[in-house]
Amino acid sequence: MKVLKERIIKDGKIREGNVLKVDAFLNHQLDIELFEQMGEEFKRRFEGKKITKILTIEASGIAIACIAARYFKVPVVFAKKTQTKNIAGDVYTSKVESFTHGKVYDIIVSKEFLRPEDHVLIIDDFLANGKALLGLTKLVQDAGATVVGAGIAIEKGFQDGGKLIRESGIQLESLAIIDAMSVEEGITFRK
């Protein structure tokens, strides 16, 4: 997606350790006009697929998922990283490792909001090692629901996550795939 790639070049900042800082428009300050274009593009890429819910993980994926959900006219469910008093009763749980935070989280979704009849599109901001996406996929499978596909804003194509997800048979649609990045050389996108 050309507009997203241009924005990454303009406002993204590369940090040591393969970290891309895009908080000026994607995951701290949010560019809603850009998100609208991303939501429309996800709708185009998953056209004709039966989707009843969008699933994401807190926190950065929520805004993108909400805008995308407007195009699919479905609710958004987000996996929480901590148990709260608001989530009572049965839950689905999975462990995910965050590349950015270097932590392992237990993610949870109430069984009330993920049912066997659901056809779920997973949406997230980044795909690096694939752990979050695999964890979300596990929640859907544990519910007996169907994973329709996964929509990612930015994929780090030089890491194994995209390969893992594609080899698992999930339709993966990334709006911008970075093949290489470094402080010295900048960013190279996949064509």
TrEMBL record:
<dbReference type="GO" id="GO:0005737">
    <property type="term" value="C:cytoplasm"/>
</dbReference>
<dbReference type="GO" id="GO:0032265">
    <property type="term" value="P:XMP salvage"/>
</dbReference>
<dbReference type="InterPro" id="IPR000836">
    <property type="entry name" value="PRTase_dom"/>
</dbReference>
<comment type="pathway">
    <text>Purine metabolism; XMP biosynthesis via salvage pathway; XMP from xanthine: step 1/1.</text>
</comment>
<dbReference type="InterPro" id="IPR050118">
    <property type="entry name" value="Pur/Pyrimidine_PRTase"/>
</dbReference>
<comment type="subunit">
    <text>Homodimer.</text>
</comment>
<keyword id="KW-0808">Transferase</keyword>
<dbReference type="GO" id="GO:0006166">
    <property type="term" value="P:purine ribonucleoside salvage"/>
</dbReference>
<feature type="domain" description="Phosphoribosyltransferase">
    <location>
        <begin position="45"/>
        <end position="157"/>
    </location>
</feature>
<feature type="binding site">
    <location>
        <position position="156"/>
    </location>
    <ligand>
        <name>xanthine</name>
    </ligand>
</feature>
<feature type="binding site">
    <location>
        <begin position="128"/>
        <end position="132"/>
    </location>
    <ligand>
        <name>5-phospho-alpha-D-ribose 1-diphosphate</name>
    </ligand>
</feature>
<keyword id="KW-0660">Purine salvage</keyword>
<keyword id="KW-0963">Cytoplasm</keyword>
<dbReference type="GO" id="GO:0000310">
    <property type="term" value="F:xanthine phosphoribosyltransferase activity"/>
</dbReference>
<keyword id="KW-0328">Glycosyltransferase</keyword>
<feature type="binding site">
    <location>
        <position position="27"/>
    </location>
    <ligand>
        <name>xanthine</name>
    </ligand>
</feature>
<protein>
    <recommendedName>
        <fullName>Xanthine phosphoribosyltransferase</fullName>
        <ecNumber>2.4.2.22</ecNumber>
    </recommendedName>
</protein>
<dbReference type="Pfam" id="PF00156">
    <property type="entry name" value="Pribosyltran"/>
</dbReference>
<comment type="function">
    <text>Converts the preformed base xanthine, a product of nucleic acid breakdown, to xanthosine 5'-monophosphate (XMP), so it can be reused for RNA or DNA synthesis.</text>
</comment>
<dbReference type="InterPro" id="IPR029057">
    <property type="entry name" value="PRTase-like"/>
</dbReference>
<comment type="similarity">
    <text>Belongs to the purine/pyrimidine phosphoribosyltransferase family. Xpt subfamily.</text>
</comment>
<feature type="binding site">
    <location>
        <position position="20"/>
    </location>
    <ligand>
        <name>xanthine</name>
    </ligand>
</feature>
<dbReference type="InterPro" id="IPR010079">
    <property type="entry name" value="Xanthine_PRibTrfase"/>
</dbReference>
<dbReference type="GO" id="GO:0046110">
    <property type="term" value="P:xanthine metabolic process"/>
</dbReference>
